[in-house]
Design goal:
Blueprint lengths: L25 E4 L8 H13 L4 E4 L15 H7 L13
Parallel strand pairs: 1-2
Length: about 90
């Protein structure tokens, strides 16, 4: 029902309490399958804040291989990025 434009409507003062069903509200960012720039990740974080999401899960690897190079831990990529039993010729030896 619409009120005429010249009429006044009163809205009572109320207090609304809202809380999530769970302690966490999360978002999954799949950087293993899709490349995101630093600015795009920052934009996702900003959007998460506006939606009051408090948990970011980043899918860093796909399969069992580790493919993100970290100079402090070179063995992660030297050993962890390769699988000899996959059958696609990805064995570095």
């Amino acid at each position: 029902m619409q009120q005429p434009s010249n009429s006044k409507a009163n809205i009572p003062c109320v207090h609304i309490e809202d809380q999530p069903r769970f302690k966490w509200r999360g978002f999954l960012l799949d950087v293993a399958r899709h490349f995101f720039t630093k600015d795009e990740v920052k934009q996702v974080l900003d959007e998460m804040a506006t939606q009051k999401l408090n948990t970011l899960q980043m899918h860093l690897t796909d399969d069992q291989g580790w493919r993100v190079q970290i100079k402090k831990y070179p063995r992660l990529t030297e050993v962890g990025a390769w699988r000899s039993d996959i059958g696609f010729g990805l064995d570095p030896n």
